[in-house]
Design a protein that fits this description.
Blueprint (H helix, E strand, L loop, with lengths): L2 H16 L7 H12 L3 E5 L6 H12 L3 E5 L7 H4 E6 L4 E6 L6 E5 L6 H4 L1 H8 L1 E4 L2 E4 L5 E6 L12 H4 L2 E5 L6 H11 L14 H14 L1 E2 L1 H15 L4 E3 L3 H17 L4 E2 L1 H11 L5 E2 L1 H5 L4 H11 L6 H5 L4
């Protein structure tokens, strides 16, 4: 069995285990695994009670990673996240007391309730995988994934995430309401409580790091697929529907997500179809619609959908051979 086939089997096992707590959301669970394997961060933007925090706690258990959670509030300070320098009387010197961000999975719960100054404390961590405390830079543990939640309904005492921070999230996901059948199944399965302790650990942090390295080294992206990635991001820069188009970071995000998706499906190559499948989760939160688009009742998601429909998808013969899988 090849390393890529092993990744596919491990991903299938993780989805199956997570589905014991998160009913009927296998596609979203898979996307979380794709983000983890590509080293990307996730913004869960959904209604109250939809299962955002449950999803994060479930995945941290299954992934076997160190988990830390901070409830973001207006009075939260950057040092409450990154850490602080304190005077050690015994040593007669200042020592760094690391903050809760020193974990493999950091849950920023209701991130948009913190003031912009505190939100910006995550920028360095999300992009450079390090934090600076009183001039001292410390590397974060590997893997390091920020999973943030926000409630799109309430506007009181909330602060909009800046574009620079939105651009650092690989995916913006919404679980949405379950179907009638899934909600009945949820009540039968976890109606009395979610048994986090009963969930089996499928991965561990060393294995995740090893799989990330294997994907980076072994999953190929051909020129046709690279051209398709760039065609999509350049299309966002050539439309009057967007006042802020996708940056080169958006192209890199599509590239990384496509490689991870291919791996969890047991392929050592990325197809244009993988990129098209990832684009609705990677691009909309990175762009800002224009006034003209608002007059036409467009959203960022609908503009990206239009671009996907009008941008030709190159044919990859390997995708035809594999039946699109």
């Amino acid at each position: 069995m090849t390393a890529i086939e092993t990744i596919r089997e491990k991903a299938e096992a993780a989805v199956k285990e997570a589905s014991k707590a998160i009913i009927g959301k296998e596609d979203k669970i898979l996307l979380v695994l794709v983000a983890v394997l590509s080293g990307g961060h996730i913004l869960l933007d959904d209604l109250p009670g939809a299962g955002k925090t449950t999803l994060v706690k479930t995945m941290s258990r299954i992934l076997g990673c160190g988990f830390s959670r901070v409830q973001f509030t207006p009075d939260l300070l950057p040092s409450d996240i990154t850490g602080i320098s304190v005077f050690d009387q015994k040593a007669g010197d200042f020592r760094i007391r690391p903050g809760p961000i020193m974990a493999n999975i950091f849950l920023a719960d209701e991130i948009n309730r913190a003031i912009p100054r505190t939100q910006s404390a995550l920028l360095e961590a999300m992009e450079e995988l390090q934090v600076t405390i009183d001039g001292e830079t410390r590397a974060l543990p590997r893997p390091f994934i920020v999973m943030a939640t926000q409630n799109p309904v309430e506007s009181e005492s909330t602060f909009r995430l800046p574009a620079a921070q939105m651009d650092r999230f690989l995916f913006r996901l919404s679980l949405g309401y379950p179907s009638r059948a899934d909600e009945i199944g949820m009540l039968k399965t976890v109606g009395d409580g979610i048994p986090f302790g009963a969930l089996a650990q499928i991965w561990d942090e060393k294995e995740i790091a090893r799989m990330q390295g294997e994907i980076a080294a072994s999953v190929a992206v051909c020129d046709k697929t690279l051209e398709y990635i760039v065609s999509l991001t350049h299309a966002t820069r050539g439309t009057g529907m967007l006042s802020l188009p996708a940056s080169p970071r958006g192209s890199r995000a599509l590239y990384r997500a496509g490689k991870a998706l291919a791996a969890v499906r047991g392929r050592a190559f990325v197809t244009p179809g993988d990129i098209k499948e990832m684009a609705p989760y990677v691009l909309p939160h990175r762009v800002v619609i224009s006034g003209e688009a608002r007059l036409l009742n467009k959203t960022a998601a609908s503009v990206i959908e239009d671009i996907l429909e009008t941008t030709p998808v190159p044919v990859d013969e390997r995708e035809l051979v594999n039946g699109g899988r």
